[in-house]
Amino acid sequence: MKILAVDTSSQVAAVAVSEGTKILGEYSINHKNTHSQKLMPMVNELLGSLEMTASDIDVFAASIGPGSFTGLRIGVTAIKAMAFAAGKPVVSVPTLEALAYNAPVSDCLICSIMDARNNQVYTALYKYEKGIQTQVSGYMGVSVLELIDIIKGKNSKVVFVGDAVEIHRELLLIELRDRCEFVPESLMLQKGASVAYAAYIKASRGMLESCFDMVPFYLRKSQAEREYEKANKGQI
Asked: Which CATH number fits domain 2-94+190-221: 3.30.420.40, 3.90.220.20, 3.30.465.60, 3.40.50.720?
């Protein structure tokens, strides 16, 4: 099973091609939010380097969110278009789930955290059970202090992964002390390989979709929508 996976949920633009659990190739750029300009050239370059075309792909996958509203739409739309043209199925991969696959297998809880601004984070908790990653919380959009309180209620060390680590590392260390660990910096941000692996697991379980069914996953409304609702509150 050959899978083409993309992640455009953050500033990172990531593309990977896998066959089964083997990563055949991966490109990643962490430079400005220029996914609309760079994503498809990255896809074409990677497929060309592998002497493949989109018709050789069996499953198309995208990180669907949470994350950047514009970035997610770019990645999801690109994958839907390629899958439609190739007549192949898609797999939707939650961004926080893919991030958790960056963490090595251990007995620790894995906490994926993405910056949601204003000391807020998008987050979810995961744990490996008999070598299989399992989600042990819902998807949350909470303040980092709320997340710390949640983790303090868990009887486990926690390893953090995601772009919010850079912002909140000091606070996490102060509040959680020796219960707090972090993945290596090389594994901290979104990776196309992790999206591809998560997609392989889901596809192996029959979790395939039509390209028409893939949609971005937002934990909260955009700032523009919130400001509009606030400005029009009470109006008929």
From this structure: 3.30.420.40
Burial (CB < 10 A; 0-12, 13-18, 19+), residue 137, is: middle
pLDDT tens digit string along 111-123?
Answer: 999 999 999 999 9
Q: Determine if the peptide bond prior to 104 is cis (ω within 30°).
A: no
Q: Which run of H or E residues covers position 64?
A: strand 59-65
Domain with CATH 3.30.420.200 in the chain: 103-187
**pLDDT tens digits for range 160-188:** 999 999 999 999 999 999 999 999 999 99
CATH architecture entry for 103-187: 2-Layer Sandwich (3.30)
Where are the extended beta strands (E) located within the chain?
2-7, 12-19, 22-30, 59-65, 90-94, 109-115, 120-129, 132-135, 140-143, 158-161, 180-182
Name the pLDDT band for 30 (thresholds 50, 70, 90).
very high
Residue 153 C-alpha from the chain's centroid: 25
CB of 101 within 8 A of CB of 200?
no
